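Structure ticket #2291
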Amino acid sequence: MTKAYVIGQITVTNPEGYASYASRVPATIQAAGGQYLVRGGHTTQLEGHSQGDRQVVLAFPSRAAAEAWYHGEAYQAILPHRLQNSTGSLMVVDGYEALKA
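Resolution: structure written out below.
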């Protein structure tokens, strides 16, 4: 099974409102078998244009697990807090699985 990664590029437009989302989202990720690989941190843009000021990378055991987290009741309940207090993009990317010789 190939891991899947959720990649977010977010610009927080209302820090106070976003704080409610930020404090509640880790539990939803953990409950779905995911973990943070990147949450904020210093960014140096090497090429192109970022879609947000804040970068997030989550690892999940599979695409099904990542999509179940996103569409699940727990995450959907807090998603409006992110959407109302930030802009940006979120995507699921399949991990790379090297060919076995």
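Closing remark: Strands lie at 4-12, 35-39, 54-60, 86-94.
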